[in-house]
Specification:
Structural class: alpha/beta
Mean pLDDT: 94
Number of helices: 11
Shape: globular
Helix content: 25-40%
Number of domains: 2
Radius of gyration: 20 Å
CATH topology of the largest domain: Rossmann fold
Distance between the termini: 73 Å
CATH superfamily of the largest domain: Alpha/Beta hydrolase fold, catalytic domain
Low-confidence stretches: none
Strand order of the largest sheet: 1-2-4-3-5-6-7-8
Number of strands: 8
Strand content: 15-25%
Length: about 290
């Protein structure tokens, strides 16, 4: 009996260590690779630093629209930084929105060594909301891209000070996104779900947070009071159709879905850039702007 228990203990130990090792790429830091500046687009801006809710120092840009009390907080994707999203900013400024951009924890210019694809980044979003309010923002919306879309939806489930949310390509279930990414890397279809589970289990232990729970699809009912727009290409492998249907069902009428035929992950804006900007700005105009 003791030998059986010892064997089981050893197997469990090896399994857990394997999970922790597999989770390293998911949680590791991503440094700045693509440096840009609002000045490149002729925008007035101020470099800013502010704390996340758990004390990590975040760095970003405050880009004001003169006299506006309305602010959109941009939230970038996994392994990236705020820099590529600058291309959208001039249209928001022209529409009368201040824009706050920042690098998430463990990304780019910000501090921190571990990322979580949304669960811990909610603390960063709430820190950004507090900073925006300190800049006399009366109405605040979130514009999230991929991981940033997940963080935006999760923040809306926890924080009442958000008037509207857009998630562009934000995976609704992290296990799906990880599994499909493994398949993209040539991991066999029948093995990717198990490896996905092991990666998320290891990351949950590593980060001291349950990544299986911190999913928009799990918390969808809590997001419902906040108007939200989900943007997805119908060929986006990281979010499945049945997940979108379930998410809409949980929204109680406050969630809109815009799907574009032929678009892959984060490609909707490439199909028609003018329509993309018009749609997202009209959404914020409808749900956020103060009179």
């Amino acid at each position: 009996m003791n030998n059986i228990l010892l064997t089981v203990g050893i197997i469990l130990f090896i399994f857990l260590v394997t999970c922790l090792v597999l989770s390293v790429p998911l949680t590791k830091r991503h440094n700045l690779k693509d440096f840009r500046s609002p000045a490149d687009l002729g925008l007035d801006f101020k470099p800013v630093h502010f704390p996340s809710m758990d004390g990590i120092t975040l760095s970003g840009w405050w880009i004001p629209a003169e006299g506006s009390p309305n602010t959109i907080i941009f939230l970038h994707g996994f392994a990236g930084t705020m820099d590529p999203d600058l291309k959208y900013v001039p249209a928001f400024i022209q529409a009368g929105y201040n824009v706050l951009m920042f690098d998430f924890r463990a990304h780019g210019r910000s501090r921190g060594n571990r990322t979580s694809l949304g669960a811990l980044e909610v603390n960063d979003v709430i820190g950004a909301i507090h900073f925006a309010k300190s800049c006399n923002s009366w109405a605040i919306g979130l514009m999230g891209f991929s991981m940033g879309g997940r963080a935006a939806l999760l923040a809306a489930a926890q924080h009442p000070g958000i008037q509207a949310v857009i998630s562009d390509g934000g995976p609704l279930r992290l296990s799906t996104a990880v599994s499909m990414d493994l398949r993209r890397r040539k991991v066999p279809d029948n093995l990717s779900p198990l490896l996905s589970f092991m990666i998320l289990l290891g990351a949950s232990f590593r980060l001291f947070t349950n990544l299986f729970y911190h999913d928009p699809l799990v918390l969808g009912g809590k997001i419902a009071p906040t108007p939200a727009l989900l943007i997805h290409g119908d060929r986006d492998p990281y979010t499945r159709n049945h997940e979108l249907i379930k998410m809409v069902a949980k929204s109680k009428g406050n969630l809109s879905l815009w799907r574009v035929a032929g678009a892959r992950h984060r490609e909707v804006d490439l199909a028609d850039p003018e329509l993309y900007l018009q749609t997202v700005i009209n959404f914020f105009d409808q749900h956020l702007k103060t009179k």
